[in-house]
Design brief:
14 helices; hpI Integrase, Chain A; 341 residues; globular; DNA polymerase, domain 1; 46% helix; mainly alpha
């Protein structure tokens, strides 16, 4: 009988061979077990179409983002998947991705910029998680966008006029929280009573849940705290929302409702501009900087991840110019263009 002999390298004692065994574990050690399990569940199977897996992956990518960002990115992602259909996300080429971005040109510069931002984020997430082999987002060039901060500028007098135009406690409370703290409208309507802590001097602090579910604590003046508690009902619990919709029990005000309220206040104040809640955030930053507030403090209060974002308000302030530091011309001595008498 012939015995099955296993092939071994000549001169190597297999039992005493202490050479390191080849393993793929080192290559995968950088990924968490949870992430590997999740990505593995999304890999193509006979019972699960690629299109469905791509939709599931898009949802996982959007988790934890602010509602506004989620809606904007979701629209771009859906447009992208529809445009490349039926090719699965993982089988796309760089040319296809760039081709989709070019289709956004017809919708304007802002739409293209949003498309580039969304796909950069999507491909970065997909590459890190192992869903795709190449990060095509790294090859997409960002689009410079003309920021219209100077066109969305409210003077201090205009803000005060809107304050005086308030007819109900909730209108006053919204104006106070949006302007005096600079919070986003989504952050304002998300405040619960348990997030507010009063101080002995009447002021207080408010815990804000910002973009990406990031927490920050902001100071609120006595006027802001007084305005908020003026709308609190006795039946409300600590976990209830501060700004509650009158149409539904316990539900928070929607962003759209707040936008309508602010627009009405602006019209009432005689302001012929399409004022939105975000204008009050701009006004907070601009007025604070005008009055000498440190840039890093405004950044912290507004919850900007980058101080460069806050720095835009410096460039948008129409009252500031380095030309103010130059010597004035002696107008009486100017003789250019004068005819000799």
């Amino acid at each position: 009988m012939k015995k099955n002999l296993k092939k071994t390298e000549p001169g190597i004692d297999k039992k005493n061979d202490k050479r390191p065994k080849k393993s793929l574990k080192n290559k995968e050690s950088s990924k968490s077990p949870e992430l590997k399990i999740f990505v593995k569940s999304l890999l193509p199977t006979a019972a699960s179409p690629s299109a469905s897996q791509d939709q599931l992956f898009i949802r996982s990518w959007l988790l934890g983002r602010s509602e506004n960002t989620k809606r904007a990115y979701q629209r771009i992602a859906q447009l992208f998947l529809d445009w490349v259909s039926p090719t699965p996300f993982g089988d796309l080429s760089l040319a296809q991705v760039q081709g989709f971005i070019e289709t956004l040109d017809a919708s304007g510069r802002a739409k293209r910029a949003m498309g580039v931002s969304a796909l950069k984020s999507l491909y970065s997430f997909a590459h890190r998680s192992g869903y795709v082999k190449a990060n095509f987002g790294a090859f997409l060039k960002g689009v410079p966008v003309h920021h219209k901060l100077s066109e969305r500028y409210l003077t201090e007098a205009e803000v005060q006029a809107m304050m005086k135009a308030c007819k109900t406690p909730i209108e006053s409370a919204l104006m106070q929280i949006l302007y005096r703290t600079g919070v986003r409208v989504s952050e304002a309507v998300g405040i619960r009573w348990q997030n507010i802590k009063k101080r002995p001097d009447g002021s207080g602090q408010i815990q804000i849940i910002g973009k990406g579910d990031k927490l920050r604590i902001i100071h609120a003046s006595a006027g802001v705290i007084h305005g908020l508690f003026a709308i609190k009902e006795k039946s409300q619990k600590s976990w209830d929302f501060v700004f509650v919709s009158p149409e539904s029990q316990g539900a928070k005000l929607t962003d759209r409702t707040v936008r309508n309220i602010i627009a009405r206040l602006a019209a009432r104040a005689g302001i012929l501009k399409k004022v939105s809640p975000h204008w009050l955030r701009h006004a907070h930053a601009s007025h604070a900087l005008d009055r000498g507030a440190p840039l890093h403090l405004v950044q912290s209060t507004l919850g900007h991840a980058s101080i460069a974002t806050t720095g835009r308000y410096l460039h948008a302030r129409p009252s500031e110019s380095s030309g103010k530091y130059l010597p004035e011309d002696e107008i009486d001595d100017l003789s250019v263009g004068r005819a000799e008498s």
